[in-house]
Design goal:
single chain, 23 strands, alpha+beta
């Protein structure tokens, strides 16, 4: 018996497809589009979130963080990590890092750079030697050791001209002479996007001298140990340390233990896994839609060849051999489509890579490099294999139910079989459900993107500069923090060209339990406590839009020696006291200071300014402001308004910080316009990418639904001719066919409804999408999908009416 895998069948399929180039091109276009979307989405997200670091045994490298309330990730403090590190057995190469800002150069050639303070364990973990010179050794960490620095390849090239004699030279970093001991290879930026590395302060590593400074931590999971086992061990150790040395008021809430995550997933935040699953699911739905359309095209061609295949089988051709010839058609089309999709997705990934290098310089994680790699190859193979199985399955359903005698009896004149009708209805329903889900998710994504582009800051961002400043305990003891804040504010105000200053620290976000606020005279039930954004501030809030509306501003004299006070936003005042004035009423910060927190008297009301991430559902103007003097913080944000150029404003900030302490440097200095530009740029690019995908999905839906309905009408041509010969009017025939499409639409909508609700709920858990917006979006999608199905039902019916009944009946 001839082999079912005969190369002759393969050659026959290739010749047959070559004789119908328009048909073959259409199928390849549909399939390659769906495959390219899925391959690109998976390749992009896998590299950004899931792929191991491009380091030796990068899959075992983890970021160590504390497990806060609800499983949220919070920073570990240096003291806790120093105490548990000697006893940990499931991790190796444990180390810390602290990211901060510095200046490079002197005089008029000063430029800010990003510096990572760390220890030799970082380079041991990365197993990456320096390209020039060496990396840190233990002696570099010793007290009194000469200040040294290791440069990234990009900084060496960009700021120092790639001078090969740089190793051993002394350069000025933060105003202090520092010897260059090494230059790392191109592309190395561990832990995230480091430009340079300096030795961490010794007290951060000492179990006795370490303080509660928040630090980043890394490690490598030991051989033969799972990440879950290591999490359990570290969590037990952290609980032991916290029990022996309870946190003081104001310490970061470490709570329940330790989280170990890959650096890519940790970089994406708490919603990373959900985003990965949802976006890949949407891409998979688009691929499924493409497969349904390709299957329909192949089914239509199979209908045209059904009489030929029946005659061949009646003459003795093996049924399996004929089926394999059809399978070869699918395999060839899918393989060609897969090759084209791999090329398209690789081009897309390279475009993303180039865009990121051009627009995210300084913030680009070193593992974010996209292009053709093993992941793209495997994804292509997997998706192509799935497409072959799906499309082949559709055709096998049709072939398995077709009877030779029925086909020969019908004579190829368009009669519809029961099995063919069931399959057509199933495909239409699948089209309705899939495109409804894809368009609904796309609509919600577009709304979120539009909100980012048009985000209301609540104030004019022109001429505003922001800088993050950290005050290490080794140089700024607890009792002197507020004095440093006051001195910094004064020095900034003395700088020429600076006409406004505010120093603030975010104490709580409305999304977390730390934002719980208890109002005097209201039940103190924990679950019922209102939540607000809480910030500690120095200087009036008018600079950032929260101008005084009633009462007084917080004053420099509001410190720990004075009565606890607070200022609330207008939104907070309306929510809690309605039209009554809140001045003189009391609240306390239960989420931050605990159930025994002191009552704070409200002394002022300021204007509303939305606070929180623009993409967060908890972004809100509900806010409580307290004096920085009553909550002195080591990490503060400095916002200034400059009257001159932006470069002069940056220089003024650096001068003021240096006048307070030469070692005091910002982690970054950014204009509000620059921050908005980058966020809007990302949102615009993402929105365009999604728009392209969803437009493609809509075109697939329109063409696919039209093809399915047209196929159904063609198969019912004889029935239509008979009805018209017996007196049915054209309008009656059109209504019958459109009603059939309407029934498919209704059933599909019923199936899609609960899935759409689930998608809306999942979206609302992450993004600021209200119920009303979700319902309105679902309504628009229903109208578009409904119009598409009804139009696709009406157009083929008009074509069928052009055939005279006598021509149809003559075929009898």
């Amino acid at each position: 018996m001839p082999s079912l895998l005969s190369l002759a069948d393969l050659r026959h399929s290739i010749r047959l497809l070559a004789r119908t180039p328009a048909f073959s091109l259409l199928v390849v276009t549909v399939l390659s589009g769906g495959l390219a979307v899925s391959i690109f989405t998976f390749g992009f997200l896998h590299r950004a979130m899931v792929a191991p670091l491009p380091l030796d045994e990068g899959e075992r490298i983890v970021r160590i963080s504390g497990a806060g309330d609800g499983g949220r990730s919070v920073s570990l403090d240096a003291r806790t990590l120093a105490l548990i590190r000697p006893t940990v057995s499931t991790l190796t190469d444990i180390g810390i890092f602290v990211e901060r800002g510095a200046t490079l150069g002197s005089g008029n050639s000063v430029r800010p750079i990003a510096v990572t303070a760390t220890e030799p364990a970082l380079f041991t973990l990365a197993r990456t030697p320096a390209r020039l010179g060496r990396v840190f050794v233990a002696e570099d960490m010793a007290p009194g050791a000469e200040p040294v620095i290791v440069l990234s390849h990009a900084l060496w090239q960009g700021a120092l001209g790639g001078d090969s004699s740089i190793v051993g030279r002394t350069i000025e970093v933060g105003g202090a002479p520092t010897r260059v001991i090494g230059v790392m290879p191109p592309g190395f930026g561990f832990p995230v996007a480091s430009e340079s590395w300096v030795p961490a302060e010794g007290h951060l590593l000492d179990p006795v001298a370490a303080d509660i400074t928040p630090v980043g931590a890394f490690g490598r999971v030991a051989s033969g140990v799972t990440r879950a086992q290591s999490e359990v061990e570290l969590s037990v150790q952290v609980r032991r340390v916290r029990a022996e040395s309870p946190p003081r008021a104001g310490d970061d809430p470490l709570a329940d233990g330790v989280l170990l995550r890959s650096f890519p997933m940790a970089q994406m935040g708490e919603e990373g896994p959900l985003v990965f699953v949802v976006l890949n699911l949407l891409a998979g739905l688009i691929l499924l839609l493409a497969c349904v359309n390709a299957g329909n095209l192949l089914l239509a061609r199979a209908d045209e060849r059904s009489r030929e295949m029946a005659i061949r089988q009646a003459l003795g051709a093996p049924r399996g051999r004929l089926a394999m010839q059809g399978i070869w058609d699918i395999v060839v089309l899918c393989l060609v489509s897969g090759l084209l999709a791999a090329l398209l997705s690789t081009a897309g990934l390279r475009m993303v890579d180039g865009w990121a290098l051009s627009n995210l310089t300084g913030n680009l994680a070193f593992w974010w490099r996209w292009g053709f790699d093993r992941t793209v190859l495997l994804a292509t193979a997997g998706f192509v294999g799935g497409a072959i199985l799906l499309v082949g399955g559709l055709l096998s359903l049709r072939a398995g139910r077709e009877r030779i005698l029925d086909t020969l009896r019908e004579g190829g004149n368009g009669s519809v079989g029961q099995s063919g009708g069931h399959l057509a209805r199933t495909l239409v329903l699948a089209q309705v459900v899939i495109v409804s889900l894809v368009m609904f998710a796309g609509g919600l994504a577009g709304i979120v993107g539009q909100r980012v582009l048009t985000v209301d800051l609540g104030f004019d961002p022109a001429h505003l500069l922001g800088a993050g400043v950290s005050l290490p305990q080794s140089r700024f003891p607890e009792e002197g923090l507020y004095a440093t804040h006051l001195l910094l504010a004064t020095r900034l105000e003395e700088e020429p060209g600076i006409d406004g200053v505010i120093i603030r620290s975010t104490l709580a976000d409305r999304s977390g339990p730390e934002g719980a606020v208890e109002v005097a005279g209201r039940p103190a039930e924990t679950v019922a406590l209102p939540r607000a954004h809480v910030q500690a501030v120095l200087r009036p809030l008018g600079l950032v839009g929260a101008s005084l509306r009633e009462g007084r501003d917080l004053l420099p004299g509001d410190d720990r020696t004075s009565a606890p006070v607070a200022v609330v936003s207008q939104a907070m005042a309306r929510e809690q006291w309605g039209d009554a004035s809140p001045i003189g009423r009391q609240l306390r910060l239960t989420g931050i200071e605990g159930p025994n927190a002191p009552w704070r008297t409200i002394v002022g009301v300021v204007g509303d300014v939305p606070l929180g991430n623009p993409l967060s559902r908890d972004r809100s103007p509900l806010a409580v402001y307290v004096p920085l003097g009553q909550f002195p913080s080591r990490g503060v944000d400095v916002v200034t308004r400059h009257a001159g150029g932006e470069s002069a404003g940056r220089a003024a900030i650096l001068r003021a910080l240096a006048s307070v302490d030469p070692s005091l440097l910002p982690s970054s200095v950014s204009s509000m316009g620059e921050i908005l530009r980058k966020s809007s740029l990302i949102a615009t690019s993402t929105a365009r990418m999604f728009a392209g995908c969803f437009v493609f999905a809509l075109l697939l839906s329109i063409s696919g639904t039209y093809g399915l309905m047209a196929r159904t009408v063609v198969r019912r041509t004889r029935e239509i001719g008979v009805r018209r010969a017996l007196g049915a009017t054209d309008a009656m025939v059109v209504r019958m066919l459109v009603w059939q499409g309407g029934r498919h639409l209704g059933v599909g909508a019923v199936i899609a409804l609960p899935l759409t609700v689930l998608a809306g709920v999942a979206f609302g858990q992450v993004f600021p999408i209200g119920t009303g917006v979700a319902i309105a979006t679902a309504g628009v999608v229903a109208i578009v999908v409904g119009a598409t199905v009804l139009l696709a039902s009406w157009l083929p019916s008009r074509r069928a009416l052009r055939i005279a009944p006598v021509e149809v009946l003559r075929g009898e």
